[in-house]
């Protein structure tokens, strides 16, 4: 697997610095995208929860995807996590974000599945700094990611493209997954800061 060159990192950092998000339709090399998709299909996926306390039925009104956390247990996962570690270093060196670690899960949306508009982090209540979503297959209809600004105005809808990556500031951009009309596979992840949360447990898992 070849990592992006120095100039490629520029094409990530410059737009991110200007707008707080960046969309890279061809981030992952094709062999790694296929290996990850195959790996996802071996994993026991479970109905995703929104919060620890939320009841399952309530969760289902908000999101319908099935997920499995990556734990570096396969070569594909190791390669992906190594690449994201490089990305973490670049963000830390160039944007001084103080990112401390990365967690991510596979997600499968089947036809009709969605994730209602939400923020991945609430100010002061989470140590999630950056959200990343890597798409493992291309979807031509339905299943777009809609990204909104701080005034709740639509910025853009992104149609999942195999190997594509979006990165955005977790506290700043509400977003939603529009109902899928065919299977949609991705890896959603979060770069985190090592905050002390005054006894609050980070609500990520
Ligand atoms: O899959 C996507 O495009 C976004 C998923 C998402 O918002 C999340 O898992 O928090
Ligand atoms: Fe999200």
How would you describe what is shown here?
The chain is α+β, with helices and mostly antiparallel strands and 205 residues long. It has a single domain, classed as Sandwich (Jelly Rolls), CATH 2.60.120.620. 27% of the residues lie in helices and 28% in strands. The protein is built from 4 helices and 11 strands; from the N terminus they run H-E-H-E-H-E-H-E-E-E-E-E-E-E-E. The protein has helices at 6-19, 30-42, 56-62, 75-95; strands at residues 21-24, 46-47, 66-69, 101-109, 115-118, 128-135, 145-148, 154-158, 165-169, 175-177, 184-192. The strands form 2 sheets. The chain has a 7-stranded antiparallel β-sheet with strand order 1-9-6-11-4-3-2. The chain has a 4-stranded antiparallel β-sheet with strand order 5-10-7-8, with no helix packed on it. Strand 7 (145-148) and strand 8 (154-158) form a beta hairpin. The mean pLDDT is 90. Bound molecules: 2-oxoglutaric acid (AKG) and fe (ii) ion. Residues 118, 120, 131, 175 line the site of fe (ii) ion.
